[in-house]
Amino acid sequence: MKEDSLHYCYRVEREEVDSRLQQTGLDLACMVDTFEKPYGQEKAYLQVKRVFAEHFRFEEKKIVIKEGKELGGATLQSPDDEEATFRTKSRESSRGYAANITETCDPDNGLQLVTAISVAPNITDDQELLAKDLVTLKERTGIGELITDAGYGGPVGAEAVKEQAVSQKTSAIKGRKKNENALGLEDFNLTKNEKGDITALSCPHDQPGEIRPGRTPGRYTVGFDGTVCSGCPLRELCPACPLKKRGLYVYRFTDNDVRVAEQRRQVEETGKEALNLRASVESTVRSVIHPFGGHLCKMPVRGKARITAMAVLSAAMVNIHRITKYLRPPKIKIAYQVQTG
Prior knowledge:
This protein has helices at about 15-35, 35-40, 45-55, 125-140, 155-165, 225-230, 255-280, 280-290, 305-325, and strands spanning about 55-60, 60-65, 85-90, 90-105, 115-120, 145-150, 165-170, 190, 200, 210-215, 220-225, 240, 250-255. The protein is an alpha+beta fold. The strands form 4 sheets. It has a 6-stranded antiparallel β-sheet with strand order 8-9-10-11-13-12. It has a 3-stranded antiparallel β-sheet with strand order 3-4-5, sandwiched between helices.
């Protein structure tokens, strides 16, 4: 041995990488097969088996190295933190967890407090975190209105706020921008009943349409009088298409289209207000993660449970500082000078 026993990491030349990985795959396959009976339920064995399955596969009884595009973000990142994941967001890669922070933001409040902290593997969708937090927030605070950014505005988030009877305002919409040279569902007039079912719809030119459910749940077809549509000044912009045999113009849409249309109307009406109120939570995020290196946020612990505990305690300290400042505002010092002449 040229190195001591602690020297277990060493550089590999680029041209050696494939052969080294191939040998690693053979070694892992041998370990998985050899130690299954005596150590099949041991954590170390299960991790070795997981690493082999995530990075290699068998093709015609040969071990093949999986390409980078075949590796998902849920692959094992560290043997002492099995729940940590990998993702790339805004061209920046990270390993570990994502924290969702909720705070009060009523302008009439003299004191704003952090109300919820939830931690999950960083590949978790923001909507899933919202759905989880809303249940306890509703029970603890009786929340009535939620302000979020575009990442929380999808179908999962919409279903969560509907179940908890909470209104949601988003500061922007995720996905493709609206085509300014065409009409969209947000330009139509929708009427819903107490259950949220669509009962009536009229076009931007105030022509009522006949609504019929589609063949699959969540889909709709609306028929308009073709004699009116053919002479409509908005004909070139309208998404309704003519039927050759029945003299109708038909427009088809889904529940998801309705959700996006409602969000577009909301953003147009209150998007700037929502953006202004939501922006303050960015400074709260910084306050919570500042003790751990700020933007890099390197916590000195591993595992979801420990990281959650540290994040919650850090948020609690933010609240304590805010409460202290609110109860004991700093005294204002005035400096003045009397000049005589």
